[in-house]
Amino acid sequence: MASCSESSNADRNRTTDSEAQAQPLDQDTAGLAKAVFAGGCFWCTEAYFERLKGVEAVVSGYAGGKEPNPSYDEVSAGRTGHAEAVQVYYDSTKITYQGLLEVFFATHDPTTLNRQGPDVGKQYRSIVFYSNPQQKKQAEDYIKELEEAGTFKNKILTYVQPLRKFWPAEDYHQDYYRLNPDDPYVRSVARPKVQKFESNFRDKLKPEYIK
């Protein structure tokens, strides 16, 4: 089964549609709330969140390490302390931070250490990055709730840590799922997961993603 890093390395050696069509972040994000999560390959995580009503933009990037200006080569090789992450810009009157947490924990396995499916390494660890005490408390309380309910067979290993800096990833990673439908990783790993998400969270989807 293809891994996220294998697909990415192959794609960078040829001209891709994403290089020509990737959408820059809408600069009009004033007034929007922000949340940052890491839960495996950011192509999947980005695709989940961008489908939610109330989410206005999602940026793939890196967070959790101390190294400035990390590159994908460095992160995917495990040469930094960063994890692949996404920054979510959302309208808090349409979707709450609690709602984002619920989607985050339902769309990856928070009980595996430094691994999500075929993607292995600290760069794929599960993290909730908080920007204020309220986000920290909500994340910790929700993890406790999931543990007490026995939602997962094994112990949740998700880190809850402060966001120091979010570094946007290279342009070709942005909106990767939509722009690279024939990528082997997208076909074999991401698409089945996204389709399952669309089925399970149909009531939270933007109209254009309801089938």
From TrEMBL:
Q: Where is the active site?
A: 41
Peptide methionine sulphoxide reductase MsrA domain span: 34-185
Q: Name one Pfam family in it.
A: PMSR
* Catalysed reaction equations from the record: [thioredoxin]-disulfide + L-methionine + H2O = L-methionine (S)-S-oxide + [thioredoxin]-dithiol; L-methionyl-[protein] + [thioredoxin]-disulfide + H2O = L-methionyl-(S)-S-oxide-[protein] + [thioredoxin]-dithiol
List the Gene Ontology MF annotations in alphabetical order. L-methionine:thioredoxin-disulfide S-oxidoreductase activity; peptide-methionine (S)-S-oxide reductase activity
Stretches the record annotates as Disordered:
1-25
Top-level enzyme category: oxidoreductase
The UniProt record lists the EC number as 1.8.4.11
Q: Which domain of life is it from?
A: Bacteria
Query: Mind listing the UniProt keywords for this protein, alphabetically?
Result: Oxidoreductase
The protein's role, per its UniProt record: Has an important function as a repair enzyme for proteins that have been inactivated by oxidation. Catalyzes the reversible oxidation-reduction of methionine sulfoxide in proteins to methionine.
Cross-referenced NCBIfam families? msrA
Family membership, please give it. Answer: Belongs to the MsrA Met sulfoxide reductase family.
What is the recorded name of this protein? Peptide methionine sulfoxide reductase MsrA
Give the organism the record lists.
Answer: Pontibacter mangrovi
